[in-house]
Amino acid sequence: METNPVLAYGAWLAEAPDDWPEAAREAAHRQFIDVIGVMIPGAVEPVTRRVFATVKGWGTGPSTAIGFGASLAPPWDALVNGTAAHALDFDDNFDPAKAHATAVLAPAILALAEAEGVSGAACIDAYIAGLQILGRVGQGVNPAHRNRGWHATATVGAIGAAAACARLLQLDAQRAGHAVSMATSMAAGFMSQFGTMAKPLHAGLAAKSGVLAAGLAREGIDAGLDTLDGPTGMNRLMVGPDYKQLRDTLTHVEHGQNLRFETQSIGDPLLILSSGFRVKRFPNCGSAHRAMDGILTLKQSYNFVLDEVNSVDIYAPVSHLNNLMYENPRDALQAKFSLEYGVACALATGNCTLADFTDEAARRPEISALYPRIHRHPVDKAEGEFPTEVHVQLADGRKLEMAVAMPAGSLAAPFTLDQVWAKLDGCAAGLLGAESHDALRVALAKIPQLPNITPLMAPLAGPFPS
Predict the structure, then answer these.
(1) Domain assignment present for 306
(2) Which one of 141, 276, 298, 310 has the largest count of C-beta atoms within 10 Å of its C-beta?
(3) What is the CATH number of the domain that holds 330?
(4) Closest by alpha carbon to 255, among 416, 141, 378, 163?
């Protein structure tokens, strides 16, 4: 068996049969519904509009820029739509890679599929295969890669997108491996961009990189074989010079993140089924969701009101709280990465919706007035070792406590298909007309049967109202 991960992943992408379990196809289908839903309002966000304004003069093409009434060349289309997919932070998380997987994979696949005229079933196949490689690369560099400040959506995501596009283009083993390798030269993104427009741009850049890497590989451009695991490979450069020590002294492994690139059983287990996704209930950083779920559950169970709350103490893994760096957010982008804002919003309104993430909403004095009551307590344990604990002290002396191991929308508490459709409908409200909305729902329901994806993209073309 091949032990070099570049060669092994290229061979698997070229040779793995398209005979996925029906549950895997259904899971992939749901994620297309979810991400297209969030791409609709994401398309009218300032960051997406500015990305489109940047690339629109660089040439038209066959791929639909969602919401702009325009078509672009596939790399620029993936850049625009990938940014839209992540602009609201309402897209899914994928634990093996610690990345927003679908916001990268789906825009890359759709941009290329529209240009190549391939079927909806081929898109599903490319998504499952690309996700598997995205997860395997993520397991090979995490948890240290993510914990040390790399944004895995941008880094690991670019490689996963290249894998998905290589699969969609049916590249042979050598060229698929070169696509994977080439994407490492485009993999970049720091967590220091969180709370700025550059953060959602990371998803667009990764999607664009996947399209570009696979296209270059198809034309015969080769790439190095040691770019994942070698003297100057991704693991040593983007984990650290202590990579081997970290790998060999791991005592707790979560989500398969063992700092080793799996090359012998690449497709087993199938990560889309064994790990699943964290589909988002709230449009903000998923690291806050366990705490927010806990607050809402306690409110529902004990029926307390805001004036009764003396204090809220949140005990959470330090890795989660590191992602939530804004304790007193000043705008909507910072609010998405604020534990205090998410918890205060849940306390005050009983929910947290897209309407809560405008600059005006983020600056509400009635929300910021709650911040002094909310206290964060970092716990130096991994998320699987320590569930987020929510402690609420009420004025009458009652102390309410709850531990949340996994958020709503995860494999432990998955959304129903009705909830997925409801999320799409909520995201599309006010942006898609009734006729386009109906046509989109019909096409989304039939993705596996579509001979090409034109019926899916046509209702999304726009332009959407500003």
Answers:
(1) yes
(2) 141
(3) 3.30.1330.120
(4) 141
What residue ranges of the chain have pLDDT lower than 50?
none
Environment class of 242 (CB within 10 Å of its CB; exposed 0-12, middle 13-18, buried 19+):
exposed
**pLDDT tens track for 33-92:** 999 999 999 999 999 999 999 999 998 999 999 999 999 999 999 999 999 999 999 999
**Dist. CA 146–CA 316, nearest whole Å:** 17
Write down the residue that tokens 């609709």 correspond to: 40
Total domain count for the chain? 2
Q: Within this chain, do residues 276 and 141 fall inside the same structural domain, yes or no?
A: yes
Q: How far apart are CA 460 and CA 65, in angstroms?
A: 8
pLDDT of residue 2: 83
Shared domain for 65 and 212, answered yes or no, is: yes
304 assigned to some structural domain: yes
Which long-range CB contacts under 8 A does 436-443 form with residues at least 24 apart? 436/460, 440/36
Q: Are 268 and 7 in contact (CB under 8 A)?
A: no
Strands 374-379 and 309-317: parallel
Name the one residue in this structure whose structure tokens are 């949140």. Answer: 314
Residues 219 and 313 in one domain: no
- Side-chain half-sphere exposure of 172, counting CA atoms within 13 A: 4
**Residues 120, 446 contacting (CB under 8 angstroms):** yes
SS3 176: helix
Assess whether 235 and 351 both reside in one domain: no
Alpha helices in 148-249 (DSSP H): 152-168, 173-184, 198-218, 234-238, 243-248
**175 and 301, same domain (yes or no):** no
- List pLDDT tens digits, range 84-117: 999 999 999 999 999 999 999 999 999 999 999 9
As a whole number of Å, the end-to-end CA separation of the chain is: 54
Same domain, 58 and 161: yes
Domain with 154, as residue range(s), is 5-280+425-460
Neighbours of 132 (CB within 10 A): 29
Per the CB < 8 A criterion, the answer to whether 172 and 14 are in contact is: yes
Q: Considering the domain boundaries, does residue 87 fall inside one?
A: yes
**Residue 3 has what pLDDT?**
94
CB proximity list for 161: less than 8 A, separation 6 or greater? 78, 104, 105, 108, 130, 134, 183, 206, 207, 209, 210, 211, 213
Q: Report the distance separating Cα 308 and Cα 272, nearest Å.
A: 43
Q: Structure tokens of 250?
A: 């791991």
Query: Domain check: are 309 and 263 in the same one?
Result: no
Q: How many whole angstroms from its chain centre is CA 373?
A: 31
Asked, for residue 417, whether it belongs to a domain, the answer is: no
310 & 442 share domain: no
